[in-house]
Write a structure and sequence with these properties.
By secondary structure, the chain is mainly alpha-helical. Helices cover 81% and strands 0% of the residues. It contains one helix and no strands. The longest helix is centred in the middle third of the chain and has 132 residues. It is rod-shaped and about 185 Å long. Keywords: Coiled coil, Membrane, Transmembrane, Transmembrane helix. It comes from Molossus molossus. This is Coiled-coil domain containing 127. InterPro entries: CCDC127.
C-alpha cells in the first residue's frame, strides 16, 4: 500500500526508463483518455444536473398548481357547505317559526274551546234553572189546558144534546 504521508518512500515505484530517467514513457499514455473521460463526466454531470433541476422545477410547478387547484376546490366545497348550512339553518328557523305559530294557534283554539265550553255550561245551567222555575208554571199550564179541553168537550156535548 502507499504511504501517502511519506511520498518518497512509495510502495509502488515507477518503472525506470532506459535512458536513465524515472518512470516509463507510457506513464502518461492514459492521461489524455482519462482527462477526456473526466471532462465528459463533468460535462455530463452538469447537463444531468441541469436536467434534474429543470425536472425539479417542473415538478414543483406541477405540485404547486395541483395544490392551488386542490385548495381552490377545497374553498369551493367549504363555501358551498357554508351556503347550504346557512340555507338549512334558514329553513330550520322557518320550520321552528311555523311550529311555534301552529302551537300558538292550537293553544288559542284550546282556550277558545274552553271558553265556549264554559259559556255552554253557563247557558245549560241557566236553561236548567229556567226549567226548574217553569215546572210549576208548566203544570199549571197543563192543568189549565186540561180544564179548557174539559170545558170544550162539555160544551160540545151540550150542543149535541140541545140540537
Amino acid at each position: 500500500m502507499n504511504n501517502l504521508n511519506d511520498p518518497p518512500n512509495w510502495n509502488i515505484r515507477p518503472n525506470s526508463r532506459d535512458d536513465g530517467g524515472d518512470g516509463s514513457k507510457w506513464n502518461y499514455a492514459l492521461l489524455v483518455p482519462m482527462l477526456g473521460l473526466a471532462a465528459f463526466r463533468w460535462i455530463w454531470s452538469r447537463e444531468a444536473q441541469k436536467e434534474i433541476e429543470k425536472e425539479r422545477e417542473a415538478y414543483r410547478q406541477r405540485t404547486a398548481a395541483f395544490q392551488r387547484d386542490l385548495e381552490a376546490k377545497y374553498h369551493a366545497v367549504i363555501s358551498e357547505n357554508r351556503r347550504s348550512v346557512a340555507q338549512l339553518s334558514l329553513e330550520l328557523e322557518k320550520e321552528k317559526n311555523r311550529t311555534t305559530s301552529y302551537r300558538d294557534a292550537l293553544i288559542a283554539q284550546g282556550r277558545k274551546l274552553v271558553e265556549e265550553k264554559k259559556l255552554l255550561e253557563q247557558e245549560r245551567a241557566q236553561v236548567m234553572q229556567e226549567k226548574r222555575q217553569l215546572r210549576p208554571l208548566r203544570s199549571m199550564y197543563l192543568s189549565c189546558m186540561e180544564k179548557e179541553e174539559d170545558w170544550q168537550r162539555r160544551a160540545q156535548l151540550l150542543l149535541k144534546e140541545g140540537t
